[in-house]
Amino acid sequence: MLARPALYTDYYELTMAQGYYLAGRKDEQACFDYFFRDIPFEGGYVIFAGLSNLLNTLEHFEYHEDELAYLSKEGFRDDFLEYLRNFKLDVDIHAAKEGEVIFPRTPILRVEGSIIETQILETLLLNILNFESLIATKAARMKYAAGDHKVLDFGLRRAQGLGGIQASKAAIIGGVEATSNVYSSFVHNTPASGTMAHSWIQSFDDELTAFRKYAEYYPENCILLVDTYDTLASGVPNAITVAKELEEQGYKMKGIRLDSGDLAYFSRKARRQLDEAGLEYVKIAVSNQLDERLIKSLLSQKAPIDLFGVGTRLVTGHESPALDGVYKLSAIEDEPKLKISENIEKNTLPGRKKVLRYSSNDGTFYGDGILLKNEQDADTIFHPFYPAKHADVTTYNAEPLLQPVMENGDIQIELPSPSQSAAYAQKRLAKLNPEHKRFENPHIYKVGISQKLMDLRDELTKNIK
């Protein structure tokens, strides 16, 4: 959480805010929606993350004297700065639960308040939600590929600066079991884990001595890195020697780790060596530029791997460096607003809205309906851009997706821990059909709009043109 978030913004947010103030519009009420258009990683869903960080940050949103002095040097007017001196966010926010499975164009979060309040928090909101949702989604894909095998986050050293703190938290929400990031574990109360680096082994005169010393200090949590010199000729045999010595002392070695080479080949060879020595209980962990596709490939080859350590390709959102979440104005006072683009898919939906998730009787997700806020339900949902495509939803159960999370600037919910959000994410993913979760050409999830919302959009579009 940022201790002083007010200036964590784009310059034009402040120029617009001053413009609203100077135009005498500071008390006008506005509504903005947060949503995204494209699913990253060529996938079928996104995991919503970052809400807890956002709400905690917004509760501490204020301008300090040194920040106001800086803005004065930048040319902002004294009367506007005086307004900011007493500024407090008084917004209402409705949002999906952290860990929710979400889809393109569905409003995931709605912000209502004065035009200045709602405008000025745009960049902060997008920065937090886009990044954490991206990483949670990548983690969920890796965990889906791994199945019952454990996945650990090793990515801090490859993360973009302090973003590694958010990345490790988001990875937990997405489904990884633990992180090597000690700071993130401390701040967010998430499980921490780690083994050793090659430097530990190199620092000793020989590999066996290095292994013995590590086992001496950590007999109950001994995982040995076996690929510093020669994996099969020395690394695994020396690990076997230490494992047998631990048995004599009443301990069991937890595992070995492979960090290079052909992981399928080396894991099979290492497993055979361990089993022949009677060490069937010793686990095999692997790392080295892993992602969901490599994990899937290794398991499809029946590689005897128990644990995957993932790093660079997790915390950087490898292949999709950003989630394209946007924050768009949908109403001023009681007047619905929309944006029109030459690209039809960038047209926005007007008015204050709600979202209903439709599910079959067994709980399986069928689709999302976007309705005007005052609508009770809809019999039919229409494709947002191609209304000839539509679906009857009268036989499905409807669940409101958005809940009040902030009122008048005060948090209204008990913020979940990352582990609680992770459990919720897995529960919701279990309700999503497998065809939406596959990596190759995932089936497109239905997201539609109500007849009334479609009529409002078409009427406004006609009048604007």
Helix-residue proportion: 25-40%
List how many beta strands DSSP finds.
21
Q: Roughly what is the average pLDDT, rounded to an integer?
A: 96
Sum up the overall morphology in one term: globular
Give the end-to-end Cα distance, rounded to a whole number of Å. 44 Å
Describe the largest sheet: 7 strands, antiparallel
Q: What Rg is obtained from the alpha carbons, in whole angstroms? A: 26 Å
- Topology-level CATH name of the largest domain: nicotinate phosphoribosyltransferase
CATH architecture of the largest domain: Alpha-Beta Barrel
* Sheet/helix structural class: alpha/beta
**Fraction in beta strands:** 15-25%
The top level CATH class name of the largest domain:
Alpha Beta
Count of folded domains: 2
Strand order of the largest sheet: 13-12-1-5-3-19-20
CATH H level, superfamily name of the largest domain: nicotinate phosphoribosyltransferase
What's the tally of helices?
17
Note poorly predicted spans.
none
Pfam families: NAPRTase, NAPRTase_C, NAPRTase_N
GO molecular function: nicotinamide phosphoribosyltransferase activity; nicotinate phosphoribosyltransferase activity
GO cellular component, one term: cytosol
Family: Belongs to the NAPRTase family.
Structural account:
Strands 13-12-1-5-3-19-20 form a 7-stranded antiparallel β-sheet. A 6-stranded parallel β-sheet has the order 7-6-11-10-9-8. The relative contact order is 0.15. The chain folds into 2 domains: 11-135 and 323-464, nicotinate phosphoribosyltransferase; 140-315, Aldolase class I (TIM Barrel). With 465 residues, the chain is of the alpha/beta class. It has helices at 11-22, 51-58, 65-73, 78-85, 115-120, 122-146, 163-174, 182-188, 198-202, 207-217, 231-248, 263-276, 292-300, 312-315, 418-429, 434-437, 451-464, and strands spanning 29-36, 46-47, 92-95, 101-102, 109-114, 150-153, 178-179, 223-225, 255-258, 283-287, 307-310, 325-332, 335-336, 353-359, 365-372, 380-382, 390-392, 397-400, 403-407, 410-411, 446-449. The mean pLDDT is 96. The protein contains 17 helices and 21 strands. It is an enzyme of class 6 (ligase). One of its GO terms (molecular function) is nicotinate phosphoribosyltransferase activity. Pathway: Cofactor biosynthesis; NAD(+) biosynthesis; nicotinate D-ribonucleotide from nicotinate: step 1/1. Residues 150-349 form the Nicotinate/nicotinamide phosphoribosyltransferase domain.
